[in-house]
Amino acid sequence: MLHTSNPRLITIGETMMMVTPSRAESLATADDVRLHPGGAESNVACHAAHLGIPSAWVSAVGDDVLGRRIVRAIEERGVDTRWVTADPEAPTGVYFKDPGHGVLYYRRGSAASRMSPASVAGIPLEDADIVHLSGITPALSVTCAALVDAVIDRVAASTATLTFDVNYRPSLWPEGAAAGELRRLADRADVVFVGLDEAQALWGCATPDDVRGLLPGPDRIVVKDGGIGATELGRDGTVFEPAIPTEVLEAVGAGDAFAAGYLAASLNGAGASERLRAGHERARLVLLSMSDFVADPPAAAPAALTQPTS
């Protein structure tokens, strides 16, 4: 798919090949598995593109069959991948979903971990409406951390909006390093997404107001509280929107879908309640699936009790 105009949304970050059981069962017993692209930032781009927002994903993959498959799959979802490079000297990362037990990562030394400020030197970030980052990227390497700061500096000097999903992954960070760095980066963004569970683990926050007290810089902070709901804390006040009761098949990726739904609604001029509701609606599709991306609602979506979207 050829994209010639500048995208409204640009996301930057690693995408790996995700191996997941085709049904909600443990890797220990699963015989049937599927391959899907899996990455926080490309997930956001895919969902936003499906919602009609011209979106691009910037990254690096290995010059290998997995990298080519990832790029092709994301292109097929309508995302502009013209700024994804193939590194002949480093592999594409891989991770496994183990339903009910989390994920297993095999990403050390991946092509994306070698990204640096030079990776975005020729990309028109300033012409986008939104540039989206996550807290995963600065944990990948020293050069990736420098990339994130360079992107924030460029966007801050432009009219674009910088959005940042904290996406705390403890296994990626040295002991004691994540809290201060993720707080610093989040406070430089215009819009921040964070799960209340993440904020508790990182900064000891018990309420959305506690998060706002720690992050005075952003115009808006969206605090997600699993099956309870999500709160937007803006300059003009605070709005809460309850979660949609949902039977959770697999929660990984739902936070990315929430961010995409929220950002798409924001770009379409929606108010706070509508933005939050759009996030919940998009997240629900992923919660009902084993995949990080679902285009449309299942034919018969079951109702249930919880919706963890952090």
Beta-strand portion reads: 15-25%
Broad shape: globular
Number-wise, the strands total 13
Q: How is the largest sheet built, in terms of strand order?
A: 5-4-1-8-9-10-11-12-13
Order of helices and strands: EEEHEHEEEEHEHEHHEEEHH
Low-confidence stretches: 299-310
Q: Which percent range fits the helix content?
A: 25-40%
What radius of gyration results from the CA coordinates?
Answer: 18 Å
Largest sheet: 9 strands, mixed
User: pLDDT average, as an integer?
Assistant: 91
How many angstroms separate the termini? 32 Å
Please, could you describe this protein's structure?
The structure is a single chain. 30% of the residues lie in helices and 23% in strands. With 310 residues, the protein is an alpha/beta fold. Helix 1 crosses helix 7 (254-267).
Map the helices and strands.
Layout: E1 9-12, E2 16-21, E3 33-38, H1 40-50, E4 55-62, H2 65-76, E5 84-87, E6 94-98, E7 102-106, E8 130-134, H3 142-156, E9 161-165, H4 178-187, E10 191-195, H5 196-203, H6 208-214, E11 220-225, E12 229-234, E13 237-242, H7 254-267, H8 272-287
Parallel strand pairs: 1-4, 1-8, 2-6, 4-5, 8-9, 9-10, 10-11
Antiparallel strand pairs: 2-3, 6-7, 11-12, 12-13
Short description:
With 310 residues, the chain is an alpha/beta fold. The chain is built from eight helices and 13 strands.
Brief descriptors of the model:
single chain, 310 residues, alpha/beta, 9-stranded mixed beta sheet, 4-stranded mixed beta sheet, 23% strand
